[in-house]
Design goal:
Radius of gyration: 23 Å
CATH class of the largest domain: Mainly Alpha
Order of helices and strands: HHHHHHHHHHHHHHHH
Structural class: mainly alpha
Number of domains: 2
Largest sheet: none
CATH superfamily of the largest domain: MFS general substrate transporter like domains
């Protein structure tokens, strides 16, 4: 009798052990995502921006070169990382990338010239893309059903968003009480911790190593563009998003100089303000479902784009740090509502079988919109000043959005004629966060 009881207990222990182990694995992945991204955000907003603007006294053109190099390197790295993750799994890619990243980020602390900084951040951004892409790709390898996939993704995204708030704040403290170079040491330390956390993670689904097949990826990409540009609603959503992303792009080259030359404050202020901005993003995403349902429309999107432009202008409209903080909070709330709404509308009006391709088209516009202003922002800043250029960019976005209200109203009437549809509001994702090169 006792032996039978022991047998049953052993079987029960084994059956309960698997879920317990998997919960532990999920917790490790979530922690790795948070820790890795916190270090990356600290190193970018305070480390790289601070190094360029405050230590190397970068001009708008030089800072634009830094941002351009990071953005392009990150895009290329993300594509390569995706292929390797499919072949070898996110755990192996993440562990190797975290280890390689340590010397890459520490080297930035010793950059003595701007060309050296550009070269080093190019390498660092490439490796960062592997870290961020892998840490965000664990869910399909850990989930056994769709509902679990959604829960894991939700936790990973929440960890990434929390890191966007915490990372710059930690960097601000380091810059305030130690030396800027220690921000990169913190980034390196978080990488080692992130690698250690996932060493023992057991993947439920192993990566498939299929033989190469003759595909038509380019043709499918163009198909996504054709659908996005050929559909009146989708075309409007993509172009509205492009207007917003272009207004973000100028900030990448000018925002550190705004704090240095207009606000006349230390590099730690960039960290504090961006932490506040991240908190406001989350607040905006929380508020969106509580707004009246008519907001979920093309006109609602147009109004939020216009408000986003005004928010950007208000953010940089004063040299008083207190007003800058207030502007950052207001602008962050608006973007926190706008980005999930934009993605919701696009997904609602895109055929199911084309979701990925249309989303890819929107991402091309996003990256292009963020990069294009880097070519003109330095010249405009030299002609009109850093603050005036940033204010002007926000006002242009507002004017364009207001001029599009008639088209937005027409789209809403066209869609209303098709009858009511269920809408599932999307949540804020880490990829929605502007300016940061860390996906």
């Amino acid at each position: 009798m006792d032996s039978r009881r022991d047998c049953i207990a052993a079987r029960s222990s084994r059956s309960l052990g698997v879920p317990m182990r998997r919960r532990s694995d999920i917790a490790r992945v979530v922690a790795a995502r948070f820790i890795s991204r916190a270090g990356a955000e600290a190193a970018f907003f305070v480390g790289v921006w601070g190094k360029a603007a405050y230590h190397l006294h970068a001009t708008p053109g030089q800072l634009a070169a830094v941002m351009f190099a990071m953005a392009v390197s990150n895009m290329v790295g993300s594509v390569v990382a995706g292929v390797l993750i499919d072949r070898h799994g996110p755990r192996n890619v993440l562990m190797l990338a975290e280890i390689v990243f340590v010397p890459a980020t520490i080297a930035i602390a010793f950059a003595a010239t701007l060309p050296a900084l550009v070269g080093l951040v190019t390498i660092s951004a490439f490796v960062t893309a592997f870290v961020m892409t892998a840490s965000a790709s664990f869910a399909p390898f850990l989930a056994t059903e769709t509902s679990e996939l959604e829960r894991i993704n939700s936790r990973v995204e929440a960890a990434g968003s929390a890191a966007f708030v915490i990372g710059p704040a930690i960097a601000a403290l380091i810059a305030r009480y130690f030396d800027l170079g220690w921000v990169f040491a913190f980034d390196a330390a978080t990488s080692l911790v992130g690698a250690a956390l996932v060493v023992r993670v057991a993947l439920v689904r192993q990566p498939k190593r299929e033989a190469p097949t003759r595909g038509h990826a380019l043709a499918e990409t163009f198909e996504g563009m054709r659908v996005a540009y050929g559909s009146r609603p989708l075309r409007y959503y993509v172009l509205a998003g492009t207007v917003v992303w272009m207004s973000f792009g100028a900030f990448g080259a000018l925002e550190p100089l705004f704090f240095r030359d207009v606000v006349h404050t230390g590099v730690e202020s960039i960290g504090w303000i961006n932490s506040l901005f991240g908190l406001a993003l989350a607040t905006g995403a929380w508020l969106l479902p509580k707004l009246p349902r008519p907001v979920v429309s093309a006109r609602g999107l147009a109004v939020l784009v216009a408000a986003c432009g005004l928010g950007a202008s208000a953010y940089v409209g004063s040299g008083d740090l207190r007003l800058v903080a207030l502007g950052a909070a207001g602008w962050g709330v608006i973007i926190g509502m706008l980005e999930p709404l934009l993605r919701t509308l696009m997904q609602r009006d895109t055929p199911h079988e084309l979701q990925g391709r249309v989303t890819g088209t929107a991402q091309v516009h996003r990256h292009g919109g963020e990069l294009l202003p880097l070519a003109v922002a330095p010249a405009l800043a030299a002609r009109f000043g850093v603050q005036a250029t940033m204010i002007g960019g926000g006002l242009v976005a507002t004017v364009v959005a207001l001029l599009s209200l008639g088209e937005a109203a027409g789209i809403d009437r066209q869609l209303a004629a098709l009858g009511p549809r269920d809408v599932h509001l999307q949540t804020l994702r880490t990829t929605d966060e502007p300016i940061s090169p860390n996906p």
